[in-house]
Amino acid sequence: MPKPLVVYDGECKFCRQQLRNLQRLAGRYFEATSFREQGFFEKHNLMTLDECQNALQFIDEDGRKYSGAEAVARIVSLNRFFLPVMWVYYIPGVRKFWDVVYENISLNRYKISRWRWISGRSPESPGPS
């Protein structure tokens, strides 16, 4: 059976950093690919460019697709130690809150990527922003 698939924006520094965080929590339980890779949409025809540009995508082992904050909750919960994250996400009100937070981060992810702590540079280190 194939592993679940995480689809992220490989051109976004913030997205790449968050993928590394997800991999630390549950990486052995999923595979990841950028929708920016050549031939991605031919290989993964369940997703559209708009969906992938708007939110992280997650396809579980049964082929069900999840997006955004719900995808994050599902990914983290692949590690059974973090299963309660998914349960908490579905509490009424909590889900709406995290969906709004996720949407705002997603809309501003390229701006966020320019923040020094995201780019991996210390505030003192020189370099282009």
What class, by secondary structure content? alpha+beta
Q: How many strands appear in the DSSP assignment? A: 4
Helix-residue proportion? 40-55%
Shape: globular
Residue windows where pLDDT falls under 50 for at least 5 positions? 121-129
- Please report the distance between the alpha carbons of the first and last residues: 43 Å
Widest sheet: strand ordering: 2-1-3-4
Largest sheet: 4 strands, mixed
State Rg.
Answer: 15 Å
Number of helices: 8
Mean of residue pLDDT values: 88
- What is the H/E order? EHEHHEEHHHHH
Secondary structure: elements and pairs:
Elements: E1 5-8, H1 13-26, E2 31-34, H2 40-43, H3 49-54, E3 57-59, E4 65-67, H4 68-76, H5 83-89, H6 94-107, H7 109-113, H8 116-119
Parallel strand pairs: 1-2
Antiparallel strand pairs: 1-3, 3-4
